[in-house]
Amino acid sequence: MNSANSATWFDLDFETKPDNDIDEALLRLFDLMKKSLHIYFNIENSFDIHEFLNNATAKNVDNSFIEWIRGKGIPRLKKIDFKNVPSNDQFLAMIEYDEHCLKCEMDFKEPIEVRSCIITIINSIQEYINICKQLIKGVF
Fold first, then answer.
1. Helix, strand, or coil here: 99?
2. 9 in a domain, yes or no?
C-alpha cells in the first residue's frame, strides 16, 4: 500500500486510475477530510487513521466523534468497493458537492459543522454509488 494518498491514510485499499476524474475527486475529498480532522482535533500530523485516533483519544476531546469514526466511520468506508465506483457524471457531481460543502466549513467558525460534514460524507458515499448504479441500469 502506498502512503502517498489520503485514501490509504484512512486505511483503504484505493488505487487510482490515471486521468480518472472520479478517483481524483475522491482523493481530494479524502485529503480534505484528513486535513479537517487534524484541525478539528488540533493534531499536527499522523501516519494513518489509527495513529490519529490514538492521538485524538489522548486529547480527551469529543470522544463520541472519535468512537463514531472508529466504530462506524472507518468500517463503513472499508466496506465500499472503490475499485468499482460508477464512472458517471452524477457520481462525480455528488462527490464534488460534498467536497464543496466541507471546503465551505474549513474556516472552522462552527467546528460542529465540520464534524457533521465528515459524518454525512462517510455515510453518503455508498448511497451515492447505489443511486448511480441504479441510474446506469436505468431503474429510475
1. helix
2. no
Q: Closest by alpha carbon to 84, among 5, 13, 3? A: 13
For residue 45, being part of any structural domain is answered with yes
Answer yes or no: is 15 within a domain: no
Contact 37, 52 (CB under 8 A): yes
Please name which of 82, 73, 77, 80 lies closest in space to residue 22, comparing C-alpha atoms.
82
Per-residue pLDDT of the chain (140 residues; tens, 9 = 90+): 334 589 999 999 888 888 899 999 999 999 999 999 999 999 999 999 999 999 999 999 999 999 999 999 999 999 999 989 999 999 999 999 999 999 999 999 999 999 999 999 999 999 999 999 998 887 65
